[in-house]
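Hi R.,

Here are the chain sequences for the assembly we discussed:
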Amino acid sequence: MILQAQNLTVAIGGKVICRDLNVAIHAGECWGVLGQNGVGKTTLLRTLAGLYAPQAGGVSYNGTALPAHARRELARHLAVLMQNETGEFWGSVLEYVLLGRFPYRSTLFGYSAQDEAAALQALASMDLAPLAQRPLIALSGGERQRAAIAQVLAQQAQCYVLDEPLQHLDVRHQAQTMQLFGQLRQQRNILLIALHDMLWVQRCCDHVLLLFADGQVLHGPAQELLTHTHLEALYQCPLREWVVEGERCYAPGV
Amino acid sequence: MIPQRILAILLGAAGLSLGLALLSGSLPLSPLEVWNALLSSGEDTAAEVIWQLRLPRVLAAFACGGLLALSGVLLQALLRNPLADPYILGISGGAAVGALAAMLLGARLVVTQLASFGGATLAIVAVFGLGFRRGERNIYRLLLTGVVLSAGCGAMVSVLLTLAQGEQVKGMLFWLMGDLSHPQGLLFAWVVLLLAGAGATVFSGGLDVLAGGLDKAAALGVAVVRWQMMLYFAAAVLTVAALQLGGSIGFVGLMMPHAIRLLGISAHRWLVPLSMLLGGSFLVLADTLARTLWAPLQLPVGILTALLGVPVMLWLLASRRP
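And here is the predicted structure of the full complex:
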């Protein structure tokens, strides 16, 4: 299993996000995508998930270009978590999570018992089982984010593209979510996560992709790239670093 | 409430409203006489009244209500907006300008209907051509284009009303408020209603996913652009069929889907058929009242839909637990 960008050039609104990017993501790897607000993390992730057409080059999954895959078939392999996506959904939390089973749904008979079971299991893993029958719009921001994550988990894909999965989550659920992602990685899935928290990047990501404000892109093993110098350049902000039990912590060092 | 129970209740309500509508009218008929008339194709007065007058009108009312409700469901899903109704994209505006212009020129009924059909078609093409962009992540452009065109049509309607004289004005007002006394294209309307209703129920999974977000829908394997185009044109055909039956009858298309949602149903698998049933029954009831309350005077049914619907909707909204 491999997700691959070849000579990828992505631009949006006249701004070039990356030029001639070549990167291969293999089964069992977890990649962190880092960069300042507005630098293009979301657009790059959308491109890598086949939701945005690149200016040049392309993205392939298992050797086949994304647009050449049958849409529903691809959705069984590749799941995407987007930011602020729950907007106008009127149904219950369970119905919302069930949408993640759409790629498996039969047209005539609707969702199967197996789909329901997958949705309920995903709900439980995000501590949402007691809220299953509540309207989605009645949930708090953090709970809604957990419902969105549960929906992605219910999709049971092999490749996960996750745009800021930790937004709105409290510490406990951040840990729980990242632990779940860690399990997915151990099961030889691909994960590609936009993150802002350096601690989680260090703990969970074996590779990183850094999008600098000047358009430069660096990618490779996290060990090599996550240096103090790189991070200060990445966020254009002086950082103080300390090491606590082997983990490096960063804070703005004004 | 579980959807199966709502379905049973609504089927009962549909039967009751149809029966009541067939019983009501200037010629008093007992239920038995109505039943016998329905079974016979005889030449007596009762059979003639039922087959020539009441049944076509009742069928027109039911189809019109179902078409408007379904069109409302589809547009609310397409535009991701709870305020969307069959008229929001300017289709009824175009139809009104066509119909009223024909009336002003003294055209016959058939010509008026054709003109309204032409106006609606022009509006559909104009709004789609100007407002739809492939792959746009929000669909506000389409929505606003429709609203702007509607406003323009509203102004044209005012001009036509100002220019009209005496009796013409009354005919125009009836058209604008919705009136089921001259239904056109009944067979077409039923074919469209049944086909679109079955299609929307079968493909309801895609409608649910679209409600969860366009990018999300694409990521889950829905061909978003194809769906948007299909929804737009399906809603347009439904609306045109409804306009041909009864002019622009308000309230039904906007409110029937919300009434079902307030009962706790939001999955389109149920929302589609239940809204259609409720819309059909509701319009049959409203039309029966419209033609009997002040008999022999007939009221435009659009007035009744609002007078009946507003208190019920207000009660549903107020009684729903937070």
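The mean pLDDT of chain B is 90. Residues 177 and 205 of chain B are 35 Å apart (CA to CA).

Let me know if anything looks off.

Best,
T.
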